Amino acid sequence: MPGVPLADTHPVVVTVNGVRRERAVEPRLLLSDFLRHELGLTGTHVGCEHGVCGACTVLLDGDAVRACLLFAVQTDGHEVTTVEGLAEGEELHPLQAAFREAHGLQCGFCTPGVLMTLVPFLAEHPAPTEAEIREALSGHLCRCTGYAGMVEAVKLAARAARHP
Ligand code: FES
Ligand code: FES
Q1: Ligand 1, atom nearest to 45 Cα
Q2: In the structure, which protein residues have their CB atom closer than 6 angstroms to any atom of ligand 1?
Q3: CA–CA dist 150, 148 (Å, integer)
Protein backbone atom coordinates (compact mmCIF):
# COMPACT_ATOMS: atom_id res chain seq x y z
CA MET A 1 0.00 0.00 0.00
CA PRO A 2 1.51 3.33 -0.98
CA GLY A 3 2.46 5.47 1.99
CA VAL A 4 1.16 8.97 2.63
CA PRO A 5 3.52 11.35 0.86
CA LEU A 6 5.63 13.45 3.17
CA ALA A 7 4.97 17.18 3.11
CA ASP A 8 7.62 19.24 1.37
CA THR A 9 10.33 20.41 3.69
CA HIS A 10 12.77 23.24 3.31
CA PRO A 11 16.21 23.59 4.81
CA VAL A 12 16.63 26.27 7.44
CA VAL A 13 19.95 27.42 8.86
CA VAL A 14 19.45 29.86 11.68
CA THR A 15 21.64 31.01 14.54
CA VAL A 16 19.68 30.76 17.78
CA ASN A 17 21.24 32.20 20.92
CA GLY A 18 24.62 32.09 19.20
CA VAL A 19 24.35 28.46 18.11
CA ARG A 20 23.96 27.49 14.47
CA ARG A 21 20.91 25.28 13.99
CA GLU A 22 20.11 23.40 10.84
CA ARG A 23 16.79 21.68 10.20
CA ALA A 24 14.47 20.69 7.37
CA VAL A 25 11.00 22.00 8.16
CA GLU A 26 7.60 22.30 6.58
CA PRO A 27 7.10 25.76 5.16
CA ARG A 28 4.00 26.27 7.32
CA LEU A 29 5.88 25.69 10.59
CA LEU A 30 5.64 28.78 12.78
CA LEU A 31 8.82 30.17 14.31
CA SER A 32 7.25 29.77 17.77
CA ASP A 33 6.64 26.06 17.15
CA PHE A 34 10.08 25.66 15.62
CA LEU A 35 11.72 27.11 18.73
CA ARG A 36 9.60 25.14 21.17
CA HIS A 37 9.18 21.79 19.44
CA GLU A 38 12.19 21.48 17.14
CA LEU A 39 14.78 23.14 19.37
CA GLY A 40 13.24 22.55 22.81
CA LEU A 41 13.41 26.25 23.70
CA THR A 42 10.17 26.38 25.64
CA GLY A 43 10.94 29.72 27.26
CA THR A 44 9.20 31.30 24.27
CA HIS A 45 5.56 31.04 25.27
CA VAL A 46 2.52 30.81 23.04
CA GLY A 47 -0.71 32.50 24.03
CA CYS A 48 -2.97 33.88 21.34
CA GLU A 49 -1.06 32.70 18.25
CA HIS A 50 -2.23 35.70 16.29
CA GLY A 51 0.08 38.49 17.25
CA VAL A 52 -1.90 40.09 20.06
CA CYS A 53 -0.60 38.91 23.44
CA GLY A 54 3.16 39.28 22.92
CA ALA A 55 4.02 36.08 24.83
CA CYS A 56 6.00 34.68 21.89
CA THR A 57 8.22 37.74 21.35
CA VAL A 58 11.82 36.99 20.38
CA LEU A 59 14.60 38.96 18.72
CA LEU A 60 15.22 38.57 15.01
CA ASP A 61 18.54 40.20 14.12
CA GLY A 62 18.11 42.30 17.25
CA ASP A 63 14.54 43.47 16.63
CA ALA A 64 11.59 42.29 18.70
CA VAL A 65 9.18 40.20 16.63
CA ARG A 66 6.20 37.95 17.26
CA ALA A 67 7.36 34.38 16.69
CA CYS A 68 3.76 33.28 16.05
CA LEU A 69 3.54 35.59 13.06
CA LEU A 70 6.66 34.30 11.32
CA PHE A 71 7.38 31.05 9.62
CA ALA A 72 10.57 29.28 10.61
CA VAL A 73 11.74 29.33 6.98
CA GLN A 74 11.70 33.14 7.09
CA THR A 75 14.53 33.07 9.60
CA ASP A 76 16.87 31.20 7.26
CA GLY A 77 20.26 32.93 7.37
CA HIS A 78 19.27 35.16 10.32
CA GLU A 79 19.89 35.37 14.06
CA VAL A 80 17.23 34.67 16.63
CA THR A 81 17.54 35.35 20.34
CA THR A 82 15.12 33.83 22.81
CA VAL A 83 14.76 34.40 26.53
CA GLU A 84 17.14 31.47 27.07
CA GLY A 85 19.84 33.59 25.45
CA LEU A 86 19.66 36.42 27.98
CA ALA A 87 21.41 35.02 31.05
CA GLU A 88 25.16 34.39 31.09
CA GLY A 89 25.33 30.96 32.64
CA GLU A 90 23.99 31.29 36.17
CA GLU A 91 24.07 35.08 36.00
CA LEU A 92 20.79 36.72 35.13
CA HIS A 93 20.63 39.43 32.49
CA PRO A 94 20.38 42.81 34.29
CA LEU A 95 16.79 43.15 33.10
CA GLN A 96 15.90 39.75 34.52
CA ALA A 97 17.59 40.70 37.79
CA ALA A 98 15.58 43.94 37.90
CA PHE A 99 12.33 42.04 37.30
CA ARG A 100 13.16 39.76 40.20
CA GLU A 101 14.13 42.67 42.43
CA ALA A 102 11.12 44.86 41.61
CA HIS A 103 8.52 42.07 41.53
CA GLY A 104 8.00 42.52 37.80
CA LEU A 105 6.43 39.11 37.40
CA GLN A 106 3.78 36.96 38.99
CA CYS A 107 3.03 33.68 37.19
CA GLY A 108 5.70 34.52 34.62
CA PHE A 109 3.79 33.44 31.54
CA CYS A 110 4.07 36.79 29.80
CA THR A 111 7.55 37.53 31.15
CA PRO A 112 9.80 36.03 28.45
CA GLY A 113 8.02 38.01 25.75
CA VAL A 114 8.06 41.18 27.85
CA LEU A 115 11.79 40.84 28.43
CA MET A 116 12.49 40.34 24.74
CA THR A 117 10.62 43.54 23.91
CA LEU A 118 12.42 45.46 26.63
CA VAL A 119 15.98 44.48 25.67
CA PRO A 120 16.00 46.49 22.41
CA PHE A 121 13.71 49.11 23.98
CA LEU A 122 16.23 49.89 26.71
CA ALA A 123 19.07 49.90 24.20
CA GLU A 124 17.21 52.62 22.32
CA HIS A 125 15.86 54.39 25.43
CA PRO A 126 18.59 54.32 28.09
CA ALA A 127 16.64 56.84 30.21
CA PRO A 128 13.01 56.08 29.40
CA THR A 129 10.12 58.11 30.73
CA GLU A 130 7.29 56.28 32.45
CA ALA A 131 5.07 57.00 29.44
CA GLU A 132 7.63 55.44 27.11
CA ILE A 133 7.89 52.37 29.33
CA ARG A 134 4.12 52.00 29.43
CA GLU A 135 3.92 52.34 25.66
CA ALA A 136 6.59 49.64 25.25
CA LEU A 137 4.64 47.35 27.57
CA SER A 138 1.35 48.06 25.82
CA GLY A 139 2.07 45.34 23.28
CA HIS A 140 1.93 42.68 25.97
CA LEU A 141 -1.03 41.18 27.76
CA CYS A 142 -0.33 40.12 31.33
CA ARG A 143 -3.08 37.92 32.68
CA CYS A 144 -1.86 38.62 36.19
CA THR A 145 -2.15 42.38 35.47
CA GLY A 146 1.23 42.99 37.06
CA TYR A 147 2.11 46.03 35.01
CA ALA A 148 3.05 48.34 37.90
CA GLY A 149 5.86 46.01 38.97
CA MET A 150 7.07 45.77 35.38
CA VAL A 151 7.28 49.54 35.06
CA GLU A 152 9.32 49.72 38.27
CA ALA A 153 11.57 46.92 37.03
CA VAL A 154 12.30 48.75 33.79
CA LYS A 155 13.11 51.95 35.69
CA LEU A 156 15.41 49.96 37.97
CA ALA A 157 17.17 48.26 35.05
CA ALA A 158 17.63 51.59 33.25
CA ARG A 159 19.07 53.22 36.40
CA ALA A 160 21.39 50.26 37.00
CA ALA A 161 22.68 50.45 33.41
CA ARG A 162 23.34 54.19 33.73
CA HIS A 163 24.98 53.92 37.16
CA PRO A 164 26.58 50.47 37.33
S1 FES B 1 1.31 34.01 20.89
FE2 FES B 1 2.28 35.37 19.54
S3 FES B 1 1.44 37.29 20.04
FE4 FES B 1 0.30 35.89 21.26
S1 FES C 1 2.91 37.55 35.15
FE2 FES C 1 1.29 36.18 34.79
S3 FES C 1 0.66 36.65 32.78
FE4 FES C 1 2.05 38.19 33.25
Answers
A1: 1
A2: 46-49, 51-56, 66, 68
A3: 5
